[in-house]
Design brief:
The complex is a heterodimer of chains A (527) and B (331). With 527 residues, chain A is of the alpha/beta class. Chain A is 33% helix and 23% strand. In chain B, 76% of the residues lie in helices and 1% in strands. Classes of the chains: A alpha/beta (527), B mainly alpha (331).
Amino acid sequence: MATEIQETNVKSPEKIQPTMEVQHISKRFPGVVALDDVSLQFFPGEIHAIVGENGAGKSTLMKIMSGAYIPDSGTIHLSGEKLSFSHPQEAQLNGISIIYQEFNLLPERTVAHNIFLGREPSRFGALDVRQMNAQAREVLKEIGVEKMISPTVLASSLSVAEQQLVEIAKAISFKAKVLIMDEPTAALTYTEVNLLDDLIHRLKQRGMAIIFISHRLIEVFNIADKITVLKDGKFIKTVDKKEVTPADVVYLMVGRALDHYFPPLGSSEDFGAVALKIKNASNEFIKGVNFELRKGEVLGIAGLQGSGRTELAQALFGVAPFRSGSMELHGKAIAIKNPVKAIKKKMGFVTEDRKSEGIAPRQPIRDNMLLTVRAILNLVGINYKDGIRKSRKLVPMLGKQVDIRTDSFDREAQFLSGGNQQKVVLAKWLASDADVFIFDEPTRGIDVESKASIHDMIRELTKRGIAVLMISSELPEIIGMSDRILVMADRKVAGELPAKSSEQEIMLMATGHSTGTQKTTVPAGKD
Amino acid sequence: MTTAPVSENGFRRILNSIHIPPVYFFLVLVFLGGGFLDQVYADGQIFKNPAIMLNIVVRSVALGIVAVGQSLVIIGASIDLSVAYTISITAVMSSYLMQGKTANVPMTIVGVFGIGLVIGLANGLTITKLRVNPFIATLGISLIIKGIINASFSNYTGSVPQSFEFFGYGTLGPLPVSILILLLIVLGGWFVLSRTKFGSHLYGVGGNSEVARLSGVRTDRVLIGAHIICSMTAVLAGLFLVSQMRSGAPWVGPNGVYDLNSIATTVIGGTALAGGKGGVWGTLGGVLIFGVLETVFNQLGVNPYLKTVLQGAIIVIAVASYTLRSKKEAA
């Protein structure tokens, strides 16, 4: 390992001093070694991507660099000076800014209050709100979004993408020398990612050292200069982007080549009878939806953010039910007015927001898996530790089916990685015997390997005759998984595309530049 | 082009600044409803006699003062259940220390605020450093104070000098001093919350403590500060009560249900129990609603137990209406 570090040192221009340097950093958490003797250098004007699977130690390293965690051993140098941080404030004052993976805004405070939280401008001890708003406007202008976002609006009134931009504005406002971004694009749409890329390049021109973590290798290759791979808390290698291919990096990350990301699509003999049929259904969020979903197929739902994808899933599952139109489940007309009914009718919904809608983080894995089964059992009765009567093996069986890696099912779900948590959610629905599955962003924020295994599992479901509706904002996922693709735009179904359509075809339809050529499901004359 | 957003912001700022907490709508409703019932079933004093209106406010002063402090800790996503006994210990200690002598007043005031400081510090440190749930922490501290009071005092002890009654009964021009004090405290609370860094940080800590910490806010200090302020307001309320009663008794705090009432009025005022949202103007509205109800019930001669039932019902209705309203806005 030491030789590899030297190798990268040789490649870097010798005279330039690294803006930031970490040496021999180790950090242990109860039961896990999160980081094991990691040393890295970050240079001014360089975009340095850190990649690795979930649990590789990326986020821990970032938190140590930003003062949120204190390392067990190792040193941090900033512009050659040795520093140690005991509070995030100290890192900020030294010019290290970080944008975390989870959104870190206070919904009930204004944009300006959020940007300057912890260092509000004041005059004679009193908060100078006018000055603060003016400065916030300056910062927003710096990243070119001052027309989009006003400093005086509440953060809760902004879209996800706008909130992300506010976070970036906040990070930049520290006059940062080092900007760390943890999955900055996970929640952004295509155009917004482009905006961010521009921004990152401008910051690079200014000589900022930029460090970013991403699961999207395409993105890493688009913008990074250097790529460092971490695995199981250990430094593997730092490579120059120009000298490697994405396949090389994946190999370094997982320790083996992933020759295909997606399982093969279904074939015509897999597809059975119509499981779900929606005719002209509308509610306050989506209008005139028509489609059929067959047993054994994956119907991909593509569309831009705000096109009504998630609203469709919520309407189907009874969260915000349809007000008009008809719905048929296995040939029988049905109205699903609430999620309980949906669960009883054997529908499963793997939601977009895993943290708040998918798992109960402080409950053991076991109870998470049994949540839906118990929900539809009689209220009065005995809860068996292993689930339902006569089925003591249910939890281990489910665990095996979804391949959860844990030493005990009594461990709290919050200690699992994102990928494993998603598997718990999946198990929950398998337990209720669901035969129509709705997936909303099934692999958002999940590492490459877990992604592949979740994709395999989705395909496995269809082999058992389960009908799958899969919403995703990642076009490769839509294309790689879908037997048919439904594109949504402007809260309607814009059209339908066959399997293996290109990204371009989907984007054109999603942005309203073309309508379905196959079997247009848009009701005529409605616009 | 560039001036357009600015003027829009200016307009919005004005709109924001005259934004009235919805609790005042309830206040007017309760006042008109109560006044109407008073006209029909009693002597109609509420609408006719301005002194009664003033009395409504005077009645609310002690609760109002402590509710401002309570609002601060609740905005910080904490809670203080020890205010009632803090009021009690202030009341007994101040009359005990003053012993009816004006000369003892300054020393006594320093002493009781010292006690408040210790209580606030104990609450804050237990919550932040020992990481005890605020509910349990302040309940525990409250029991400790209760034990100390009960072991040392069993009845009215000592008295306050005549001069000290100025605080409770005096007037400055046409206005009672007590109302001015309440206004001053509410203004102070508003200033701290919306015009100081401390207030800004407190909203941050209450909204999401981890976000605040990662933004560089010293979250522990902020929360300890809020608890100290809260205990100080309780001390002030205790001093006010003792100046009205001339002598302190150990039961003044719990008898006035200052702990639960201060929480209820804060929540009626629109401050979220989960923290991060709200303000003292709303709390003042909540306190005045309690004052109006009290007066109306007295006028009508309502059975005191029924009074409590109605008070409870009004709390629930008010808070439920906010939640329903904000749900509607979201949809």
